[in-house]
Structures
1.
Amino acid sequence: MSTGFPHIRAHADRFCSANLAYCTSEEGLVDLFCRDCDFFKEGEDEELECGAFRILKHLLLKGVITPEDVVRAVAE
């Protein structure tokens, strides 16, 4: 089992389709995609978006991926 992505793994229940409104909000997107990143610093430059964030955000908002897909991917 993977030991990476501790935030996503610890808060997997927060990232479910029943909670899609949260996951597609700016706060939820940062929570899902950024908190495990080595470059993420709480309260610093949180308005900046890296290319990976923009791609993942686009895929999630278009329905190509779901929050569960992300949780499953980091759990494997």
2.
Amino acid sequence: MRSWSLVTAAVVAAAVLSLPTPAARAATPESDALKQAKAAIKLRQGEAKADQALTAAGLFDDLDTFQAAIVDGSALAADIPKNLVGNVVPGMVQLYRDSYSVVSLTAQDIFNIYDAANLDVPLALQAGSGGDVDKMRAKLEAGNAKLNKKFAARVKKLADAANKSRSGVFRLNATVLPFPALPPVLATQAAGGFFNNFPAAALILAAGSAGTAASGNASVGGLLDDPASAIVNFGTVNPTVGGTVNHTFQADETGRDPNGFSQLFMTDTTDSILVQIGGIYIPAP
């Protein structure tokens, strides 16, 4: 009886060992595509995070250099607002672009993977499903909010240093606006253009100078649907600006009255779009 049990056990064990294991099961086209899509999402997220870290480091270095020039007096007071906008906004736009473009690139990656496999993109990889692409977008949004908060704090530090070092002759007021929301990851269609129509300001600055040439200077810069043109309204002054190769715009106005509130907004060149981008108080020394 004992020997029979050993033989039986050996036969049963051999039968169990001969069964296919989960790892040995043949992959399906659907599982292969999903695996590739998840890897693409992870890769794109990592690229965006690395690119933003590099851009942010350079941006903060530029702010340190510019603040030093303001404090030691080598930066001309009248040029501070427009130079700060001109130097900083491209970096801010790049921070946003690093996350915005990854949405488009990820959508194209997923579309290409499923198109090559002649499969429909599953619900879990479609926007609004609460699946992987929505989670990716939420992480990118959270990262943008964190970067924007750090940047706003750094700009405030620069403004405080400028006002302390030039007390009585110059005052600077600065406002950093939140980045626009990211679009959904539309993986069920080929990715389209780089930017959609969303003129939005990233940075607004205003300053007042004392002396015989006492005047205020308001500057604004940020994102613009490239290569569209828009009108930036400084009260009754309405300069037209165009999108650059870097998808940025910048507008400046001098001669504003200190101790006044400058309302800023944008329209397109046909007045069919009105985008409120805020206002800023022009201080007096």
3.
Amino acid sequence: MKNLEQERIFNYTREETLKNHPNAKCYAIKFLAIDNSEIYADLFIPKGDCKGIFLEFPDYKVAPKDYLNLSRYSIHNYAVLSLHIRGQVGKSKNNQPWSIYAPFLETNYYNYVYQDALDVLQIVKKEFGELPIYTLCFGQGAGISVVVSAISNEIAEQFIANIDICDLENIYKENKDVGFYAPIREYARYNVDKEAEMLNDLNKIDTINYAPLIKSKIHYGMSYLNPQTPLASQNKFLSLIKNKEIIHYRKFEKEVLQEHFFDEYVLEKLADKK
């Protein structure tokens, strides 16, 4: 796998969908990734003036937003491009190898996901020129957002919550490698002589390494009940972010937060923008 490319040269198609949508022009975006995986995204553009565009990267194995939820951006005169993460829930394909240790080990999976996200950023820049770009993402998507923002410096503000793919070495060493992180534990059990190599591979995809490079403001939603990424790891990430606003949800789980309350916070912020 080559280093991540900010301005990879590739072609994409834009096919109109939902032609009778009352307040947005809707398109299916398709392109071939750097490994020839077929990548798909939804693009909704308000029919009136457009203030900016949001990028959405879904959480791990969570379906991309449906048409009703994507339509809400046009109410505030924002466009949205929602990437279907390769090989998860959605229409994008994945040509990368998969095993019981995926998506973390014995694969370059997340490096390719990061490249896909940088590619859709290039599409957005071609489609919208100098309009400001924002992100709204949870969990896995929050990690992808951080990587894209750090590498490109093209994101005006990030609305993210409960970041994952974060602080992987400490998650392993503190025995927090369960649930989403369980493949790391399984790999270590069956490869006891490869710990150093394993940690080196995990470090290559760890989103915490990108935190010091972030220049955009981060609005960060933080659930306190049953966190997937330990709160200590999330706080370590946040300590590296200079410009941030943290919204504490002390009595909510991650799943409840991303379904309702953080979205409401984001929509309120959009309503305040002129």
